[in-house]
């Protein structure tokens, strides 16, 4: 297989690079160079090609998947479709309930955008199901599951390479308020604690590299030790993991494997910018993929909003890829409506940050909406709005007295009044 | 009447200052000094006393009120109650439909928090209703309406003192994409354009000061020329108005009148911090009251989120008072659910900014939630959450298999797993 990064390094502009460069209105040579340097990645799934990284628009990921208690594949496929309709850039299948192979295949098959996964979930769950314990999990099992995912057409996998025995030593000091909150992180920490062995994704990182090369699989280096509350943010544990990920990036640099770095989590507003800059600096400018950041712990039911705040600031500071968070985070498996709210909130954050980063296309989009609003062209406003379904729903649920205005100000619409006045005084 | 600011200047610690200082866990003398300097204000309504400004927690305002097309007082009173339940700090009655005197009295009477208003609405509407035109409005009418509001117990009024004939000259150049989007601003600009006269709230600012002294009424200097889209942000018109407001602040400095400065509006992420710093610098550090800022124009239906992003950054940068924006902004008069979403989104922004500003109480609140979450104490999480009603609704709508976890991860809950593992290995 000829790897995307290999070709970029040779200065070859692949059709994938050409097409996204055109879509993003950037120079294809520059994009190829950025891919060669590991500062951008190309993620593909059939016809859907996305570039994530330096100078690109910020992308949004949607997590779907079953849980042990709520396991309905058709429900997850509905979420997938809704997320794609609302223009998610990627989806991740985080299923942990039901037949994981079947579910993954169905999601990959149905998805119109690249699919990511977290193979350690399946590896651990199969170990528990077969042998009753996590510690029965063998090193080979982990790599076998990763290969299964790659073969099925998964485009990127989260691998928690930074969770090591030395992390366990720090964890033992119990300085954290909420310990380990990443499911993958908890699986690996538990396995290490129970077996006394080093995390194979770290100790056998070369094998991971080999697998990634074999399938041109993107490795998304997970943050299994991300803070689960504001008080734990930017602590020793989180920073140690980041430094380990930085070493992994160095090791993989010459292997032509595409890498993404995952980041926190729960982070106070004022620590987001330094977190983004640190991650970029430690990891050689690799594309940064953030979950949230959630900027306060007190808003369960609204974590799409706490994340949109954090994501916008992070994106502005340089994050490249935002994982959505839904209103049901910390409470339940999301509903279709939750998925909808989550995707839109993340897209708002990404777009607001794109504008702040000086992306001309993003700015022009807002200017078009401003123009439609000024003209009170409701049809055009609906077409341009981030979720036309929602726009229509709100406007059509209201008594519309005049087609020219909305019923918030009605005949006292400022824009309408200014129009009239200016006409009257001949301006 | 002995004015709150007069007493602060004399070094007298009033009971109002003492009580809010205690509530905010700050020094009463320092708060009094800040009020004397015009950097904080005390807003009162019966037993409800709020301080807004320097070193204080960021406050949230809820707009309610009828429109010409949707005029139902009981509906507005329901919104008021819901906003108060969700801990709004103030409400503003922006009614423009029905009997405005009656509606205002009912709202002031029913409100458990201080009430603000925008008297120019009523002045103009009465002119249109009586005489058929805006230009029939007399200078005295404006001040009469303001006095009526003060007599009824309104605690603060928005007065657009910075919209002047010189603004009209800039407007004539038509450099803006969306012109004037403030209702009050459009009323005053139209009146000036049609009569050729200067804005009385500017030319007769002394009369306004007299009225404010008479009733210890807080003047909230409105931004009638705020940008209505990102492309119009931080432009000549907006900055000219801000400079005029700065001169008003100087003029009022010795009159012992409490002042607030209102700010935009639609502002790109990267222009929010400079906007806050400019407003603070030009207006002598007066408390800054922002609407939004909305960080993208393309999300009608989600402007509570676009505003929460902007509000959090603005609060972090020094804004003191956030006016909520609801999901129906730009589309319709808000429903009860819209009010709920708007209040919570603004409170999230304010709280996230409080934490970033180093407020210890705010940080401790999040630590309590983190602790409850770590213990999987669902009852305590509900109590602590920003909207316990929503928390309960989401959790109770789901199949709960184990009381110990939620159905997002179920038995694979990271925190539960870590507990088990640590116990097993004796840590």
Automatic annotation (TrEMBL), chains A, B:
The keyword 4Fe-4S applies. Keywords: 4Fe-4S, Iron, Iron-sulfur, Lyase, Metal-binding, S-adenosyl-L-methionine, Zinc. GO terms for molecular function: 4 iron, 4 sulfur cluster binding; metal ion binding; phosphomethylpyrimidine synthase activity. Signal peptide: none annotated. It comes from the Bacteria. Its cofactor is [4Fe-4S] cluster. Its EC number is 4.1.99.17. The keyword Translocase does not apply. One of its GO terms (biological process) is thiamine biosynthetic process. Pfam families: ThiC_Rad_SAM. It is an enzyme of class 4 (lyase). InterPro entries: ThiC/Bza_core_dom (IPR038521), ThiC/BzaA/B (IPR002817). This is Phosphomethylpyrimidine synthase. It comes from candidate division TA06 bacterium ADurb.Bin131.
